[in-house]
Specification:
By secondary structure, the protein is an alpha/beta fold. It contains eleven helices and 17 strands. It has helices spanning 6-9, 33-44, 77-84, 86-107, 123-138, 153-156, 171-185, 197-203, 216-219, 287-301, 344-359; strands spanning 24-29, 49-52, 68-69, 111-112, 116-120, 144-146, 159-163, 167-169, 188-190, 204-210, 228-237, 248-250, 255-259, 265-269, 307-317, 324-327, 334-338. Helix 3 crosses helix 5. The chain is globular, with a radius of gyration of 20 Å.
């Protein structure tokens, strides 16, 4: 059964842009953070760009996530140093920190720079957090070690890392604001406009950008082995006492939550209750995972809260958990930007801009990290 996120259920400013059926320089498929970011950069450089969204702006994962704006990627910094090399890892983390600053400027009050907390649920995770802490400190990134946690976290977790540069988002409001910026710069946006690759080719004179993350494999079947759709489930409660003023995540991010300024708890995760069932692009919630989310909410709040919304969102996961950003199949017309492995709020803004700059003829060095050729 289709779900509606808390974010998408709130009053949102309409997205309005004139759009024609005439060919344009670049067609962007997908109206999430990546597509809107790409359209904004292209339009600001005078490129004729039309963004086509099958539903509404931010109706996909960009408006259905937990509202976390985090630096880095889908694995810890010390792990990135081992897998990518210290210089490449530093380059990636610096990209996301710079992007957080840009997001803060663009998002206005849809973003709160409140930091984030990564919590250790057991000794193994505590050791992993300490290793990441040491690596971040070594390379000059702001981070704080927290030994003493406030109740009830002190009874549930052993320690935490505080990442002071992170923040919290109202994701649907943010992405629609980004779309409005793109329109103001001259981009065309057409909602409720579903296209396939054949039609996109007809409409684009120069390039097509596929920015649909969890639906990448459906739109570009040749990428199916490399971008797997994964579903995440979330709930939100009615307002309760405010305890968690910033995003929190634990158990290798299988549990995550934040409270909004009005006290409403937004909580997601517990996907490890049913990995196989959650490898899907189908919108919907399940009793197995929602029951575990209810239990976690009660533990965090000290009592069972009233739940106002339950929903899901689907993202694209790659084998190495790095995005795919670049040309597809060695051609010069079709580009892809997606596969954020659950970390698309910041990486999506960065990668939409990166792919636009590549189309403009620039060669940002950081783009090499995400080149689809490494997998395809």
């Amino acid at each position: 059964m289709p779900t509606t996120s808390y974010w998408l259920a709130q009053p949102l400013s309409p997205v309005s842009a004139h759009s024609t059926s005439d060919p344009v320089d670049v067609v962007v498929v997908g109206g999430g953070v990546t597509g809107c970011s790409c359209a904004l950069t292209l339009a600001r450089h005078g490129v004729g760009v039309r963004l086509l969204e099958a539903d509404e702006i931010a109706s996909g994962a960009s408006g259905r996530n937990g509202g976390f704006a985090l630096r880095g990627g889908a694995f810890a910094y010390d792990d990135a140093c081992l897998r990518l090399g210290p210089e490449t890892a530093r380059q990636l983390w610096q990209l996301t920190e710079t992007t957080l600053g840009r997001l803060e400027q663009l998002a206005g009050d849809a973003f709160r720079r409140v930091g984030s907390m990564r919590l250790a649920a057991d000794e193994f995770e505590r050791s992993a957090l300490r290793s990441e802490y040491d690596a971040l400190r070594r390379d000059g990134f702001a981070v704080e070690w927290v030994d003493r946690l406030e109740p009830p976290l002190d009874a549930l977790y052993l320690a935490a890392l505080h990442h002071p540069t992170d923040g919290a988002l109202d994701p649907a409001r943010w992405v629609r604001r980004l779309a409005a910026e793109a329109i103001a710069a001259g981009a065309e946006i057409a909602e409720h406009r579903r296209v396939d690759l054949v039609e996109a080719h007809r409409l684009a004179r120069q390039a097509i950008v596929v920015a649909v993350d969890g639906s990448t494999a459906a739109f570009l079947p040749e990428l199916a082995p490399f971008v797997t759709p994964v579903r995440g489930q979330v709930l939100s409660t009615e307002p309760v006492q405010l305890r968690y003023r910033r995003p929190h995540y634990a158990r290798d991010a299988y549990d995550y939550w934040q409270q909004l300024p009005d006290g409403r708890l937004v909580l997601g995760g517990c996907r490890d209750a049913s990995f196989d069932e959650e490898r899907t692009a189908v919108d919907g919630t399940t009793a197995a995972i929602q029951t575990r989310l209810d239990v976690l909410a009660a533990a965090l709040l000290g009592s069972t809260p009233s739940v106002s919304h339950r929903w899901s969102g689907c993202w694209g996961e790659t084998p190495d958990r790095l995005p795919l950003v670049g040309r597809v199949g060695g051609g010069d017309r079709v580009w892809v930007a997606g596969g954020y492995s659950g970390h698309g709020n910041v990486l999506g803004l960065a990668c939409g801009d990166l792919v636009a700059r590549a189309i403009l003829g620039e060669r940002p060095p950081v783009l090499e990290i995400f080149d689809p050729a490494r997998l395809v």
